[in-house]
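User: Could you go from structure to sequence for me? I need the amino acid at each position, not a summary. Structure tokens:
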């Protein structure tokens, strides 16, 4: 007799399964383009030098201890994070109607925010882009949302944004629905709306009274410029929206496994903040009680110190420039080989990921024949491309499309 005999095998999580498969593969030229983590030109993980410096300073600081943080986390960290997102001169900051809540990275911010919206505001329907980061659905449904709906986003034919489809779908959304918007560097397509398109999106969101929930997993990492990558969120704030934004320090600080993130909350009425905070406190208390300190202290230490902050911006530039360079190299190689199709989308897309346009069969062929690990959707992580494998990757794509 077992309590567990009725439990069915769940489906594997594609990106983790792919990495495992790649790790176990002993083919010398294998390439991991699945996982979304930065790699150096040598294909190695990178601990940002500014993070090492902060860790040393923290290790030597005898005033720090291991006592619990408050339920909403380290205050300096969440304040600095919200300020970084919205900009110090944001009307929401100046008018004291925005605050931050430390979270378990970007995923945790989404989950806490979603759970609050479902349980305290009675939200039931959320919208996400087709395609989106594959975890959005699971996080929102697990948090208590009842209905997941999609809005069109990627046009495979034009290998770009389907703005008409996007606007039409959200225009048909029931009033009060929550809409997940990628702040920048849309995952998985790497394709963002232009500023004019964002203006149109904001008009519909306002007209339909949708609740914008931004997901900002790549601030600074995408373009190398913290302000530019926050443009869309700041624009919405300037238009008077109340909103949530999940922020992750996984990519821009390289703090993947430290689970360091923030939920920024922008409200219209400062007198309502205390009640909202008290309910978010209860949400977190019932989930994991309080967050860990290490990553938050690192970020807070860096954002609070002008010299380290500048050093961090330099580190971000190193990462974003390498990715932009690899986009150029990959496109050049594909075009040099005369690979069928157009490849301008590779350099026009931004951030960690690129939607190559390869279909499921072609993507699986890349894995099986060339040991180039990529998602079935045709998504590749640009971070896995290096000066020493870019020719091999391009040649393999070319052969896949011509064989
Ligand atoms: N949202 C998006 C769009 C992402 O790409 C990611 C990272 N893959 C996340 C959220 C959350 O990541 P984490 O929880 O590691 O911060």
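Assistant: Here is the amino acid at each position, in order:
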């Amino acid at each position: 007799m077992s309590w567990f005999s009725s439990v069915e095998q769940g489906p594997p999580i594609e990106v983790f399964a792919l990495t495992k498969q790649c790790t176990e593969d002993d083919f010398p030229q294998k390439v991991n383009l699945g996982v979304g983590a930065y790699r150096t030109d040598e294909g190695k993980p990178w601990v940002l030098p500014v993070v090492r410096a902060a860790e040393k300073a923290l290790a030597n600081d005898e005033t720090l201890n291991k006592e619990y943080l408050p339920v909403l986390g380290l205050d300096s960290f969440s304040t600095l994070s919200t300020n970084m997102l919205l900009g110090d001169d944001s009307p929401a900051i100046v008018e004291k109607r925005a605050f931050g809540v430390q979270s378990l990275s970007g995923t945790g911010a989404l989950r806490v925010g979603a759970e609050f919206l479902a349980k305290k505001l009675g939200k039931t329907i959320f919208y996400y882009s087709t395609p989106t980061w594959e975890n959005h659905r699971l996080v929102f449904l697990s948090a208590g949302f009842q209905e997941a709906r999609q809005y069109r986003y990627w046009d495979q034919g034009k290998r770009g944004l389907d703005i008409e489809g996007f606007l039409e779908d959200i225009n048909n959304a029931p009033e009060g629905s929550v809409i997940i918007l990628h702040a920048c560097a849309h995952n998985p397509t790497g394709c963002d709306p232009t500023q004019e398109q964002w203006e149109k999106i904001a008009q519909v969101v306002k007209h339909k009274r949708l609740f914008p929930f931004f997901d900002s997993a790549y601030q600074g990492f995408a373009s190398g410029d913290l302000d530019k990558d926050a443009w869309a969120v700041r624009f919405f704030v300037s238009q008077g929206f109340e909103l949530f934004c999940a922020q992750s320090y996984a990519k821009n600080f390289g703090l993947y496994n430290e689970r360091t993130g923030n939920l920024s909350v922008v409200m219209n009425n400062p007198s309502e903040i205390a009640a909202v905070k008290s309910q978010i406190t209860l949400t977190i208390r019932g989930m994991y009680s309080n967050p860990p300190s290490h990553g938050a202290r690192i970020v807070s230490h860096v954002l609070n110190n002008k010299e380290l902050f500048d050093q961090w911006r330099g580190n971000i530039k190193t990462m974003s420039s390498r990715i932009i360079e690899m986009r150029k190299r990959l496109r050049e190689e594909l075009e040099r080989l005369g690979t069928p199709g157009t490849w301008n989308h590779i350099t026009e897309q931004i951030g960690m990921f690129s939607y190559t346009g390869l279909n499921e069969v072609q993507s699986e062929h890349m894995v099986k024949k060339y040991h180039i690990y990529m998602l079935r959707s045709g998504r590749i992580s640009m971070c896995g491309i290096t000066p020493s494998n870019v020719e091999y990757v391009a040649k393999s794509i070319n052969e896949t499309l011509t064989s």
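One structural detail worth keeping in mind: The first helix runs from residue 14 to 24.
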